[in-house]
Amino acid sequence: MRGLRLLRAPAVLCAAVCALLSAGGTPAHAHTALQEASPAPGAKVGPDTQVIALTFGSLLPGTVPKVSAAGPDGEAVPVGEPVRVAGSTVCAAVRGLPTGVDSITYTVLAADGDAQTNRFLFQVAKDAKAAPVPAACRGRRLPSPPAQRASGLLEGQGPAVVGASVATAVLAAVVGALVIRRKRGVRTAVVGGRTDSEEG
Q1: Model pTM greater than 0.70?
Q2: Count of the separate structural domains present in the chain
């Protein structure tokens, strides 16, 4: 019986030491873990939500996490450039959250410089209230979200498509004018030919 007690004591001590070592060896990225969010994971908010706010345990000085949002179909939702405010809170303007299960994706830099990307889901419903704006984000001028495209195919190609359309229209007008002018020239030549023959 005494031998068993002597064996148990080292085992308990070993377990305690292992626990301390595990606590001391916590990965650096644990400090960049998300602590609070608005909209929060699993929350139900209204489509008129205007601000996304994320608060982390800590962030590397001079770094600003990347934030993006997507609708139920995976199509990107317009989100403004994130702004880091007091402490480790990041605020970003958002517009046009579609109803359904949306998602927010964020990328942060850990203390070791590695980029870590995470995503969470929340629900958007017409009968719900807008997500509350944390005090740290209130009264701040956040960059406006980019203009939403009518079609995803035009994103990043709008000016090029419009420019091509204008160029095509101008080219068509020029060609049309040349054709009309050429026809008039041929007609004048024919009429002149007849006049010369009659005079001869």
Answers
A1: no
A2: 1
